[in-house]
Amino acid sequence: MAHALLAAASGGLLVTLRGDLGAGKTTLVRALLRALGVHGRIKSPSYALVEPYAIGENDIKFKRSIGTHAYHIDLYRFSSPDEWDDAGLRDVLDTHALCLVEWPEKAPQLLRRADIDIALTPSLEGRWICIHGGSPAGAAVVRQLASGQTDA
Q1: Residues 6 or more apart from 91 whose CB is under 8 A from it?
Q2: Contact indicator for 152, 61 with CB cutoff of 8 Å
Q3: Is residue 130 pLDDT above 80, yes or no?
Q4: CB distance 65 to 6 below 8 Å
Q5: How far is the C-alpha of 63 from the C-alpha of 6, rounded, in Å?
Q6: Do 52 and 138 contact (CB within 8 A), yes or no?
Q7: How far apart are CA 124 and CA 17, in angstroms?
Q8: In the predicted model, is pLDDT for residue 66 greater than 60?
Q9: pTM for this prediction
Q10: Is 24 among the domain residues?
């Protein structure tokens, strides 16, 4: 998926991740960030709200795609959609970074803006994952994943 993100992106990407507690949202974000060359500890932003990461420029060919930064955002503790603006998170989305947002339903306007929406559902065999492309760049990522042509 990381390679598909790099191949299809032409600017910043908003990826929303939905699912119940324990569905695997943070685990998926950690795996994506590792595949994008992030080194060191990758923390859950449950309390900090947002964790910024520098994507390993030496490890990945960027081709001026998603930039060199990623933001992992967790909105679980939000009680009102207005908190999104109050927290200043709109500025983060207006960058050329990869923004990975857990619990986007707490700020419904994000679901309408998402380039890629990922829904995770635990099952007996593991997890079901549904990926929807909400923009041309997001649809390109979904096509890349569906074709299996994800080599960067």
Answers
A1: none
A2: yes
A3: yes
A4: yes
A5: 8
A6: no
A7: 20
A8: no
A9: 0.84
A10: yes
Query: Is 48 within the bounds of a domain?
Result: yes
pLDDT tens string 84-97:
777 777 777 767 78
Domain contains 13? yes
CA angle, 74 then 107 then 144, to 5°: 70
Where do the DSSP E strands lie in 10-79? 13-18, 50-54, 69-74
Domain region containing 17: 2-86+95-101+109-145
Mean pLDDT computed over 48-67: 63
CATH code of 14's domain: 3.40.50.300
| Residue 152, domain member (yes or no) | no
Q: How many residues does the chain have?
A: 152
Q: How many domains does the structure of the chain reveal?
A: 1
The neighbour count for residue 10, using CB atoms within 10 Å, is 13
